């Protein structure tokens, strides 16, 4: 029971963290492409 509760709490948090990391990586890549050199 506790494991299920933990999974319900952790899964959305992990999804948010992964999304944030992907956004940061994409923005860094775009910044490098936009920057001259």
Q: Order of helices and strands, N to C?
A: H
Strand content bin: under 5%
Give the biggest beta sheet: none
For the secondary structure, the number of strands is 0
Radius of gyration: 16 Å
Q: Classify the secondary structure makeup into a structural class.
A: mainly alpha
Number of helix segments? Answer: 1
Helix content: over 70%
Q: Output mean pLDDT.
A: 91
Indicate the overall shape: rod-shaped
Query: Could you tell me how far the N terminus lies from the C terminus, measured between alpha carbons in angstroms?
Result: 55 Å
What are the segments in which pLDDT stays under 50 over at least 5 consecutive residues?
A: none
Task: Describe the structure using short key phrases.
37 residues; 89% helix; rod-shaped
Short account of what is shown:
With 37 residues, this protein is mostly helical. It is built from one helix and no strands.
How would the blueprint of this fold be written?
Layout: H1 2-34
Can you walk through the features of this model?
With 37 residues, the protein is mainly α. Helices cover 89% and strands 0% of the residues. It has 1 helix and no strands. The longest helix is centred in the middle third of the chain and has 33 residues, at 2-34. The radius of gyration is 16 Å and the shape is rod-shaped. The model has no long low-confidence stretch (mean pLDDT 91).
């Amino acid at each position: 029971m506790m494991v299920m509760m933990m999974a319900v709490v952790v899964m959305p948090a992990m999804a948010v963290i992964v999304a944030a990391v992907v956004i940061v990586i994409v923005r860094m890549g775009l910044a490098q492409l936009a920057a001259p050199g």
